[in-house]
Please model this.
Amino acid sequence: MSGFKLPPTAALESLVVFLWLLASFGKILSQENGFKVAMKEGSDAVLPCLISTAENIVEKIFDWEKDGQRVFIYRLGSHSNNGHTGQDEQFRGRVSHFQDQLKKGNASIKIQNVKMADSGNYSCIFPQLQLRETFYIQLVVERILKDRSGETRGASKPIITTPDKTKDQLLLQCEARGASPEPKVEWQDSSGKILPAEEPQVSERGGRYYVTINITVTKTGRYRCEVTQKELYHQIHSEALVFISEKLCENCFTRESLGWMSGTALAVFICYVVLAVLVFVSYKVLHSGLNSSACDPLL
Ligand SMILES: *[C@@H]1O[C@H](CO)[C@@H](O)[C@H](O)[C@H]1NC(C)=O
Ligand SMILES: *[C@@H]1O[C@H](CO)[C@@H](O)[C@H](O)[C@H]1NC(C)=O
Ligand SMILES: *[C@@H]1O[C@H](CO)[C@@H](O)[C@H](O)[C@H]1NC(C)=O
Model:
């Protein structure tokens, strides 16, 4: 039927060669791709590693490395968390193995609180086996939006003011000053829902942005002004605690009496109340102690 003929042995040989090539290509591929673990910044990452024979490795040696750094060292029970030296500073106190998993040949590790700098290619090495075994795991740490005041030149806390308290409703103004790049400024309620606010007012001076956004509130609650700089993965906020009491008296100047207090002001206020109570109680205790026989009717 076909005009294509090969001696049977030659056909078999080329098939073997083809399969061998396929197998080695697959091996290279799997070694290059390895295993990928993607984690969000700040979370804990488990990097898997299982010896192919699944034998007990309690009395064995294994190493975890990353781009030339020593991540974790295990030597017949002595390891990086019980005195074995040589671990890279970056990983000190953050990497642990799973002791109860060792008898199953499981040399996985957990890295706590992963940082951007932890991203990279890890290898889990069993050096003493007949065929030295190495497993490759790529850790990808994904940046999240968070307060990065300490690490970037991002926007500082926005300033909340109440420019107009005399109207029926309370006007809250939030101002982000001198931020670069231009931030997004939004008002949110206590559940994080974005509230419809007025158009923000943006001005720019020397590459720095000044953004002001107003909102009118009519209900008691906690209001948050959120400033976001996506480019820097930076997000920072200030909060205002607003008390709006319903119409309680007819002689009030405004239909509703309005009040607002920032979070810190409230904390200071509570502090004073607690202090006053403490002072009062200790005064009473002291007083009653000194006059225990005086039978003061007030005590
Ligand atoms: C190895 O141990 C880790 C941590 O306990 C676990 O998450 C993982 O499933 C184990 N792997 C195997 C193959 O048992
Ligand atoms: C890690 O390995 C992958 C796949 O081999 C490669 O694409 C990547 O660039 C490597 N990353 C680092 C930081 O070396
Ligand atoms: C916010 O309200 C104040 C007071 O009424 C006003 O001066 C300011 O221009 C307003 N800002 C915006 C962005 O509308």
